[in-house]
Amino acid sequence: MKQYILTHGNLLTMRDRTIKYDTDILIRDGKIQKIGRNLTASAVQEAAGPVNGINSEADAWKCEADALNGETKILDISGRYVMPGLIDSHCHYDADYMGKMFLACGVTSVRNMRGYKRHAEYAAETLAGKRTGPYIYSSGPIYDGEDPGIPDNSNEIVRTEADVEQAIEYTIRNGFLWLKTYPSIEPELYRYLLKRARQQGLPVCGHMSKKLDDKVLADAGYYCCEHSSSLPSHNADIRYLAESGMWFTPTQAVCETLPDYVWNGKTLPELEHFKDLPECERESWESRNRKIIESYRSQGVRPDIRVVISRGRTFLEYSDRFMAGTDCAYPGIIPGFSMADELEKLVELYGCTAFEALKAATVNPAAHIGLEEKKGSIREGMDADIVVLAGNPLADIGNVRKVSMVFQGTNLYDEETIRAYGSEAGFLKKEEIEFIHW
Ligand SMILES: [Zn+2]
């Protein structure tokens, strides 16, 4: 039995906005066993056994020494802040190098939004402790109709009811949690898909529809709208979706890449952590970004980011069912590090309090995934997915960048490991990386 006691931490359980100062946490077998004061003393007493007890100071010292040298590791985290591990609620975990970057930034789980068989294998390997990276909860592939607007469309195209059945079957068989749709599926087929998915208990998430009224999707129980840019243009319609109980992932940071790189002259190397990506990834992003820039400039489309923000804000006025997702590794959105960017945007642009933003990265996605009894907040009996920060994230949301320790179940990543994990991908050669293709 290996156990840890984190002592004298300032605990933000995320069950409410208070901080429990000077609190200890006992972690055993990957679970939060106990929360309270002076847990070290009780652990020492337990080590001494119920019969002998601790009769003298000398005994106490001996027991403490045994505890320290043996099964219990005591970590003094005085002055630091403890919160639940972050959940990136919209990502594309398409290369193995990303796993350590996520952990370095306190992201202990991800919601992967395009899953193939290999992603399902990654998820199982992570759970079994054979892969270093966040736990993976994934949708299946992206299903769309014919869309001539997408060059080199790599999405799965559904043309017939048989295709819909196959999509549902593939998604369920691989253990994926959601069926993901893009907006060009033909209306009648879309209705059929929503009906069949619902009958089989499979929630549908994605980019809504270009051809079907969004309210029809809401009425059919469409589970989550991805990206502020996918929301309808009229406030009344956004309100309708919000009040239907639909979830929403704004992904504001990725929405901004379009105006930033296409029109505002931003470049990828300006990003603080661009150098921490593998060289081959940097090259691939540069080339993809060039294509995106050319395509949008030639179409002359110049989206107004203020409109996108105002749609997202409207949703948040009527619902608290929203999640912080980054859409990494879209060019410009760095795995792990972009999580803090998204949280800052929720505060600065969407008017969230720091607590609401943090909920969007913990409690909310845990509920969305159906894991609220295991993850997303800190209480006895829950999974030990924990981030230790060197600053109070409620006082300044930017303090989520100051990760000093991460627990993920039975794994402890200390400060040195975190620092290494945050930068070592920058030294990887292409042949050392597994990219997931489909
Ligand atoms: Zn995405």
Automatic annotation (TrEMBL):
Residue ranges annotated for the Amidohydrolase-related domain, each copy included: 81-404
A GO molecular-function annotation: hydrolase activity, acting on carbon-nitrogen (but not peptide) bonds
The entry's keywords: Hydrolase
InterPro entries from the UniProt entry: Amidohydro-rel, Metal-dep_hydrolase_composite, Metal_Hydrolase, Metallo-dep_Hydrolase
Protein name: Imidazolonepropionase-like amidohydrolase
Origin species: Hungatella effluvii
